[in-house]
Design brief:
Structural class: alpha/beta
Radius of gyration: 22 Å
Strand order of the largest sheet: 2-1-3-4
Helix content: 40-55%
Number of helices: 11
CATH class of the largest domain: Alpha Beta
CATH topology of the largest domain: Rossmann fold
Number of strands: 10
Oligomer: single chain
Number of domains: 2
Shape: globular
Order of helices and strands: HHEHEHEHEEEHHEHEHEHEH
CATH superfamily of the largest domain: Nitrogenase molybdenum iron protein domain
Strand content: 5-15%
């Protein structure tokens, strides 16, 4: 397996080559610009972010004349996404970018800023207690770990309404600073969005309470939740769940490790597993056959974040009550 530093160097070199090609293409079009046939369209209110759920958040905060775009489309894997020349060209037209802890995101932005001086960059995750994990595992819910500088933060922050409340506050503050003429309209939309998040937060707290009553669990006991890929790390921390992931270092375990996982599922009386539809379900066929667990699929990188939450809540209620 390629170590993390080597992967960073490889992708940094790749991004550097893309930028060189992009700058070269701009120089080739200089004549078009001076003749009035300008190929690049610099928008006054063009905002970029990494993924569709974050685009949903920003869209809920800005008026209609703003254009919000994401680099990754629905269903793309943020862990393995590679930038293209078109991504670099798109960012060259933007004047605001919201960071979200996606791997190698900041490397690209740093490069783009070097020639797009007007691009402002804000970190949506500022003030959130990140959970750090060893490369590829994403299995722990405990943020207090040693050697934290050697680890990567879990990237699935958008799957917890508590995180999104802070993310929306950060976005609102940045928007007011960058577009002060629209402060009042930002505030109006932010207030509505925050109220919806508060309602979702209450809904998940109620779901947690109902499940604990069903399982006769004390308040101190966490609810087991089984996933294929560990994408519910923050959700589990914020709503009293203990996430158990099938994947270990990005791979499905076999042999003794799989037998231990089966024993854990039976001991904890886990009734279901939540998987992403794009993942290979045949890898967990033996697990399903040996435990009898139900399989629920959940899309987590779609645009409508509130629908993702609704589907997740349905999985929890159906899994424990049906």
């Amino acid at each position: 397996m390629i170590n993390q530093n080597k992967k960073v160097r490889i992708r940094s070199f790749f991004i550097f080559v893309l930028i060189i090609l992009f700058v070269f293409s701009l120089s080739c079009k200089e004549e078009d610009k001076t003749s009035g046939d300008v190929k690049l369209n610099y928008h006054n209110k063009l905002i970029y972010t990494s993924m569709e759920p974050y685009r949903f958040i920003i869209d809920n905060l800005v008026p209609q004349e703003y254009t919000v775009k994401s680099l990754l489309t629905s269903g793309s894997d943020p862990h393995t996404f590679d930038f293209t020349p078109q991504n670099i060209r798109d960012l060259s037209e933007a004047n605001l970018y919201f960071l979200s802890q996606i791997p190698f995101e900041k490397i690209l932005i740093d490069k783009v800023v070097s020639f797009n001086k007007s691009l402002k960059v804000f970190d949506l995750t500022y003030g959130i207690e990140l959970i750090y994990n060893s490369e590829g595992t994403h299995t722990t819910n405990d943020p207090a770990q040693e050697n934290i500088e050697l680890l990567e933060p879990d990237i699935h922050l958008w799957l917890s309404p508590k995180n999104v409340r802070k993310i929306s506050e950060n976005a609102y503050t940045a928007l007011c600073n960058f577009f002060p003429e629209d402060k009042e309209r930002f505030y109006s939309k932010f207030t509505v969005f925050k109220e919806k998040l508060d309602n979702l937060d209450s809904k998940f707290n109620k779901t947690t309470m109902l499940i604990k009553q069903k399982l006769s669990l004390p308040d101190s006991k966490k609810i087991p939740i089984l996933v294929y890929h560990p994408f519910l790390t923050y959700f589990a921390r914020d709503y009293g769940f203990n996430q158990v992931s099938v994947e270990i270092d990005g791979k499905v375990p076999g042999g003794k490790s799989m037998l231990r996982l089966i024993d854990t599922i039976k001991a904890e009386k886990v009734k279901f597993i939540i998987v992403q539809p794009e993942l290979p379900l045949q890898d967990i066929q033996a697990l399903v056959e040996n435990t009898g667990i139900k399989v629920f699929t959940l899309k987590i990188i779609d645009y409508d974040l509130f629908q993702i939450y609704s589907n997740l809540n349905d999985c929890l209620l159906d899994g424990y009550f049906k």
